[in-house]
Amino acid sequence: MNMNFFKDIKIVCHGFTGKMGTYHSDLSIKYNTNIVAGISPGKGGIYHLGKPVFDNAKDAVDATGANASIIFVPANKCVDSVLDAVDVGIKFIVCITEGIPLLDMFFLKKILKEKNVFFIGPNSPGLVVPSICRLGIMPINIHKVGMVGIVSRSGTLTYEAIKQTSDLDLGQSMSVGIGGDPIVGSNFIDFLKHFNNCLNTKVILLIGEIGGSLEEEAAIYLKNNMKKPVFAYIAGVSAPSGKRMGHAGAIIRSTSGKANEKVGLLKRNGVYIIDSIDKIGKSIKDFTIKN
């Protein structure tokens, strides 16, 4: 995955003619995102938002050469849509759908690994490369071309970080939400690797939260692999054990997932910790001025 991929991307949208697919595809097309076709079974042959609609991914790929998919279908239809894309060789998928059953995700993770598919989500706000493409549901008017690579588990906290870095003229090289469900496709490390090699990225911001071990895994990776400064904000410092906070994946167990433990490990591995959401932009700005 590199910036040229996003410049040359050809996207098909599963659930294109539905309410959410229509609304967000329209915004993305207006942002110059190269959505080349939609997929809505039973509606093949029509045009929607000026793009052809197909019954399945095979027909869409054969006609357009699409190499990526974004998925806006309900949770009970998601497995079929993902397999529809994977079976025709699509290797990059963004899944907005929330609440996919855990057994379905266990099944999909195995297939995605076998087929070497880069999968963002589920329950992801998507990805934006400013001025190049928007795959997902992120607000358009807060983005600005710049230096900060943002990767997050939370959609709304991502938007806040984007707004702050834009307001302070830092901008973003890319912003991505990996998803808030308990089982997700890509993880923090996948994007840390990308940002580490991205010439446009000068500073990296990781936004985590309680629950799971993705932040701990990222911290261990960071220690010996990063050549760029990494900042982190971890939400849920005051959350009690056993309480789910927002996302299905944001739940503290008695032995893991606590925000303070994540913060401590990240800090010990060289990450600059931001202790308040309203300090994200200023913390990074102050660092860039001094360095």
Condensed summary:
The chain is an alpha/beta fold and 291 residues long. Helix content is 36%, strand content 22%.
Walk me through what this model shows.
The protein is α/β, with parallel strands linked by helices and 291 residues long. The protein folds into 2 domains: 3-120, Rossmann fold, CATH 3.40.50; 142-290, Rossmann fold (3-Layer(aba) Sandwich), CATH 3.40.50.261. Helices cover 36% and strands 22% of the residues. The chain has 10 helices and 14 strands. It has helices at residues 3-8, 19-30, 57-64, 78-86, 102-114, 155-167, 188-197, 214-225, 259-268, 280-290; strands at 11-14, 35-39, 47-48, 51-54, 68-71, 92-95, 118-120, 126-129, 133-136, 145-152, 172-177, 203-209, 230-235, 272-273. The model is unreliable at 248-252 (pLDDT under 50). Heterotetramer of two alpha and two beta subunits. The active site is at residue 247. InterPro entries: Cit_synth/succinyl-CoA_lig_AS, Citrt_syn/SCS-alpha_CS, CoA-bd, CoA_lig_alpha, NAD(P)-bd_dom_sf, SUCC_ACL_C, Succinyl-CoA_synth-like. Keywords: Ligase, Nucleotide-binding, Tricarboxylic acid cycle. This is Succinate--CoA ligase [ADP-forming] subunit alpha.
Furnish the topology, listing elements before pairings.
Layout: H1 3-8, E1 11-14, H2 19-30, E2 35-39, E3 47-48, E4 51-54, H3 57-64, E5 68-71, H4 78-86, E6 92-95, H5 102-114, E7 118-120, E8 126-129, E9 133-136, E10 145-152, H6 155-167, E11 172-177, H7 188-197, E12 203-209, H8 214-225, E13 230-235, H9 259-268, E14 272-273, H10 280-290
Parallel strand pairs: 1-2, 1-5, 2-4, 5-6, 6-7, 10-11, 10-12, 12-13, 13-14
Antiparallel strand pairs: 3-4, 8-9, 8-11
Helix pairs in contact: 4-5, 6-10, 7-8, 8-9
